[in-house]
Amino acid sequence: MPEPSSRRHLLRTAAILGGVSAVTSAAGVRAAPRPHGPTFVLVHGANGNAASFAPLVAALARAGHRALAVDLPGHGPDGNFPVSYQAPQDLAALAAAPSPTLARTTLAHNVRHVVDTVRRVARHGPVVLVGHSMGGATITRVGNEVPELIGRLVYLSAFCCVRLRSVVDCFQTPQAATTLLPMIPAMRAPERLGVSRTNWRSADPAFLAAAKAALAADYDDASFRAALNTFEPDESAAVPTDDARGAPATWGRIPRAYVRYTRDRAIPLALQDRMIEEADRATPGNRFDVRSLEAPHLGPKDPRPLAAVLTGLL
Fold it and tell me: Per the UniProt record, which residue ranges are transmembrane (predicted)?
């Protein structure tokens, strides 16, 4: 016999509420709410956005974990995509097009944005703050600000500055000598724009070959082009030069892990290892939990191995 609609409504409401609040047992005793598990908060690197984490977020969700990818200021819905960037492209106009948000964006802006996100997410359970590439500079500085709200920091082939002051300083070390990033042609945008600009929609075979070698040499061409189409043309010129150092008294007390990408040609393995070593020397009582994946700079094409590493850190 069909249930009366009012009873069905009550049962459905109870089922929904049961997932987020205290429940009443058959004996009428209210049980304590079950605490939420950790939430992975993912912070992208240069020219990225939250969409670049979509495969990883899906893999974490399928494994039963919560994940939230952040769009840093001037990225994602606020990204700068001039008409001249669309097809057919007008490269002269693109080189001179303003970038209203990113021209004024500093590392401090990124940090404030992510701190606000962490504060909100931490109301619902522990936070695992994950940064990829230049996103490592942001999560380090967030660790300086709110160490009590972060259960763990995770660096995915990411910049972790302790002795070295900035991302640019990291690239000036001997360990960065083999990086292929300078081989990717950048647009000659006027310095007054306050951004670095790359035409990721270029069809030039030389550009595509250089970008693939630096970022995703292990990918097939179709997978690489799919990844490339999530990139944004502009990145703040200030963020890589700003002070990104972690303070041992704050950032240094948060448990942390580093996932080395052993085939990374953008942040060479030698540079990754130097940053790990300098961080461990600064906080010998709280060393990196180091894991390794055979992956290029964009990470493994199949997100499941990375999701397994992240969930294995819990």
Answer: none
Can you tell me the distance from the alpha carbon of 208 to that of 110, in angstroms, rounded to the nearest whole number? 29
Residues constituting the chain: 314
C-alpha angle 200/205/209, rounded to 5°?
Answer: 75
List phi, psi (to 5°) of 154. -130, 125
pTM, full prediction? 0.88
Mean pLDDT of all residues in 19-47? 60
Q: Distances from the Cα of 29 to the Cαs of 14, 21, 24, 33, in angstroms? A: 15, 14, 6, 12
CA distance 24 to 143: 39
CATH class held by domain 36-312: alpha beta
d(CA 195, CA 50): 20
Helix (H/G/I), strand (E/B), else coil: 253? helix
Rounded to a whole number of angstroms, the CA Rg of the chain reads 22
Which residue, chain included where needed, has tokens 């936070």? 127
d(CA 203, CA 173): 33
Residues 56-78: what's their mean pLDDT? Answer: 97
How many Cβ atoms are within 10 Å of 227's Cβ, its own excluded? 20
Q: What ranges do the domains of the chain cover?
A: 36-312
pLDDT at 25 over 70: no
Contact 217, 265 (CB under 8 A): yes
What are the CB-based long-range contacts (under 8 Å, 24+) for 119-122?
119/146, 119/149, 121/39, 121/41, 121/68, 122/149
Rounded Cα distance, 231 and 234, in Å: 9
Sign of CA dihedral 236, 199, 260, 62: positive
pLDDT value at position 154?
A: 98
Cα 213 to Cα 48, 209, 259: the distances in Å are 18, 6, 20
CB of 257 closer than 8 Å to CB of 290: yes
Three-state DSSP class for residue 197 = strand
The two three-digit tokens of residue 242, written as one number: 């700003």
